């Protein structure tokens, strides 16, 4: 082969390629028809749940897999983008503090957003960790309530119970 390549004398014999899908749908096997039908159903489902703007992004895709991959990158980003987003959320979680003039309802709303986003990216925090983080984020004006709550077993204090206790305070 090396000599043929160097001399420019290539063999004219061709190797047989494995047969692909037949061009005529009547020649498809039952297995091939099943795959075609599943693909068509999946594409139809995806087309029905997206907006016109999203359709423009995927209209050139030939297979359901291509459509899915394009939508996944569009909405979740590449792995590097996901990791960066997770890192930013973890950073926001670690630095989380109650803002001046913020109510308990507002702090929990803001904290829930971070927790929900982290969970969606596969980085959930336990209820105990969430309770500890909220208690650590409160300013010194809440110190008496925090000390009283910390005297309990924080692993048994649920996040929603903490919210109710702090709102009642």
Automatic annotation (TrEMBL):
Residues 1-23 are annotated as: Disordered. It holds the Pfam family Retrotran_gag_2. It comes from the Eukaryota. This is Uncharacterized protein LOC104220918. It comes from Nicotiana sylvestris (Wood tobacco).
